[in-house]
Input
Amino acid sequence: MKRENAVTFKSNPIHLIGPELKVGDKAPDFTCLNGLDLVSLAQTPAKPRLFSVVPSLDTGVCNQQTHRFDTEIAALGDRVAAYTFSLDIPFAQKRFCTAEGITHQSTLSDCHNHSFGKGYGVLIEGLPLPLLTRAVFVVNGNGVLVHVEYVAEVTTHPDYDKALAALKALS
Output
């Protein structure tokens, strides 16, 4: 499924592959890499989860987004789980987290088969390098989406307050 002109990237309309998920939808399964280990939705804990999606950790807004969520998640402790998804290879993700002191969320790489990007409707079509669009999902302990944001312009920040309010309401 292709969603034409779903978001913009530097003001240019781009197409996304996959469905546009809505609050109340069941969170789609995925197979991503954490290091060299495959991780699926079922392998994430059955508690409130934040899925922060970024094009690449090594860019300014993605870096800030990852830091902001890491800081906010720290206050919630083990009542929640948080993940940052990108198409960066797992080794680059680990290097970034180590260098930047990211300790309260895990990174999952969708480079294996793009199943997260396709399932969550965040895989950008048409760029010379595959990327995920910026988005935030909050999943409850039963695997249902309680917050969905596809950021309209890929180079801008998500609504942190809304995502965190949805997560905090579950914890």
Summary: Residues 27 and 143 are 6 Å apart (CA to CA). The longest strand covers residues 2-9.
